[in-house]
Each structure stands twice: as C-alpha cells, then as structure tokens.
Amino acid sequence: MSRLPLLDIIHRTVVYSLTGLTAWTVVSAVMIHRETLQKGRARMEAEERQKQSKSPANPTS
User: Fold this and answer.
1) Predicted pLDDT of residue 55
2) pLDDT of 58
3) Residues of the chain whose pLDDT is less than 50?
4) CA of residue 25 relative to chain centroid, distance
5) The dihedral of CA 8, 11, 15, 17: what is its sign?
6) What region does 34 belong to: left with phi over 0, alpha with psi -120 to 50, or beta?
7) What pLDDT is recorded for position 13?
8) What is the Cβ-side half-sphere exposure of residue 55, based on CA atoms within 13 angstroms?
9) How is the chain classified by DSSP, letter by letter?
10) pLDDT at residue 39, rounded to an integer
11) pTM, rounded to two decimals
12) What is the pLDDT of residue 56?
C-alpha cells in the first residue's frame, strides 16, 4: 500500500511541473510578442520621420 502514495506524489509532481512550464511558456511568448510589436512601431515611426525630413517642407508644383 505504500506504493500508491509514492506514485501519486510522482504523478502530482509531473503534472504540476508541466503546468508551470506551460504557464511560463505562454507568458514568455506574450512578452516577446509585445516587445516585437513595440520595436516594430518604433521602427515605423523612425522611418516615417526620416521620410518627412527628406521631403521638402513646401514643394512647388
């Protein structure tokens, strides 16, 4: 009968470990996604500012 509690403890350890690993993976993926979006927006803004500075302020047509 001592074998059942040992298997139960091992099973719970595996389940909790996998649950924690899954949660950590999801949180990390969301953080990386947000960081990538933030860098992309900053790059787009920098390119837009660069385009505006290269174009003449008052073009004559």
Assistant:
1) 77
2) 59
3) none
4) 9
5) positive
6) alpha
7) 98
8) 10
9) --HHHHHHHHHHHHHHHHHHHHHHHHHHHHHHHHHHHHHHHHHHHHHHHHHHHHS-SS---
10) 97
11) 0.65
12) 67
| Longest CA pairwise span in the chain (Å) | 93
Q: For 16-35, b where at least 16 C-beta lie within 10 A, e where not — what string?
A: eeeeeeeeeeeeeeeeeeee
Residue 24's pLDDT is 99
**35: its two tokens:** 């960081």
Q: How many residues does the chain have?
A: 61
Name the amino acid, one letter, at 49.
R
The token duo for 60 is 């004559």
Distance in angstroms (rounded) separating the CA atoms of residues 24 and 30: 10
Query: The tokens of 45 are what?
Result: 């803004």
